[in-house]
Amino acid sequence: LTVYKDRERMFLKHINYEEYIVTAYLPIDSAEGRYSGLTASRAVAKPYFTVAVDPTVVPINSWIWIEGLGWWKAQDTGDAIRGQKIDLCLSIREETKELGRRKMRIKILK
C-alpha cells in the first residue's frame, strides 16, 4: 500500500492543478423523486465516484483527482455544468448542502 501511495504522489506531482467550482447532486429523478440510475455516459451513477462535467472542457470517462476527496470519474453531464465547474454525485442531502458551492483544486487525466 505504501509503494502505491508513493507512486500516486509522484504521478500527481507532475500534473498541474486547476481551480474549478465544485457542487454536488443526488442521483434522483426530480420529477418522480426516485433513483434515476443512468448517466450521460450510460453508466450507473455511483455516489462518491461519479462526477458531472462539461464535456467540451473535460472528456467523458476522464479520471479526476479532487484535492482532499480523491479520485472521481467524469461520467455525467448537466444543463448547469458549463466551463470549469463539476458536480459530484453524493448520496446524502445534508452532504450536498454542506459542500455547497466552493472552489477546489483538481487534476484531470484526459
Based on the model shown, name its key terms.
alpha+beta; 35% strand; single chain; six-stranded mixed beta barrel; globular; 2 helices; two-stranded antiparallel ribbon; 110 residues
Describe the overall structure.
- The protein has helices at 2-13, 93-99; strands spanning 18-25, 28-29, 34-35, 50-52, 63-66, 70-76, 85-89, 102-109.
- With 110 residues, it is an alpha+beta fold.
- The longest helix has 12 residues, at 2-13.
Question: What's the short story on this structure?
Answer:
This protein is α+β, with helices and mostly antiparallel strands. It has 2 helices and 8 strands.
Radius of gyration: 14 Å
Query: Beta fraction of the residues?
Result: 35-45%
What's the mean pLDDT score? 86
**Beginning-to-end CA distance, first to last residue:** 25 Å
The coarse silhouette is globular
Widest β-sheet, arrangement of strands: 1-7-4-6-5-8
Secondary structure category: alpha+beta
Give, in order, the helices and strands. HEEEEEEEHE
Uncertain segments are none
Range of helix content: 10-25%
In total, the number of strands is: 8
Sketch the major β-sheet.
Answer: 6 strands, mixed, barrel
